[in-house]
Amino acid sequence: xxxLKPDAGSVASSERRRVLARRIRFFVAATITYNVIxxxxxxxxxxxxxxxxxxxxxxxxxxxxxxxxxxxWQFAGRDPEAREKKALRFIAxxxxxxxxxxxxxxxRSLLGAREPDHSTVGIMLxxxxxxxxxxxxxxxxxxxxxxxxxxxxxxxxxxxxCSYLSGVLLAGLLLNSLFGWSWADPLAALVIAAIAxxxxxxxxxxxxxxxxxxxxxxxxVANSQAPATPPACCSDD
Length: 237
Prior knowledge:
Layout: H1 8-49, H2 52-76, H3 84-110, H4 120-147, H5 150-179, H6 184-205, E1 215-216, E2 222-223
């Protein structure tokens, strides 16, 4: 009796899972590298200009690195699924810490503790990030959804948050620079804090993504049996 051949679908699924895991690790490395540079520039420029928004943006970049590192830690293990919850919790706490610090710093600025100055470096940084971060986020989110990893998608959403924050930061810095509206800077910082709080709550509840593509059995082997009606968060928009 001839030997049974391996199921082609299972082999393809397992191979696809390995490809997606490698792809996510690459995006994580790219995110870490960019955000280390971004954090150094933003914190230096923010300190020099007494800008709550720039300092908050720089701290967000540091938290981006810690979030990406959490996903890297998850996928470094033999069973990434088992590390999923811890990675999500770490990402959520990172958001909460950012929101708390930036809120306090922005309120101090609004109450007259200091007045932010013009920052050309900050404006350039915000514009560059506004172009780069959405691309990184889209690529990682797509791979994370297909793999069925909520933490990878949570990290991609934090990267997307960075692009939102870049837009908010750019608006605040430009209003302060062009019109002398010093209140625009701490106001932008408060918007950054509010967005961070919202994303932290979503990561804490595990709503960052649904396992829409691959699901894992007890042996860690991927299969492609997705739910009949995927939740709305699985859309590729």
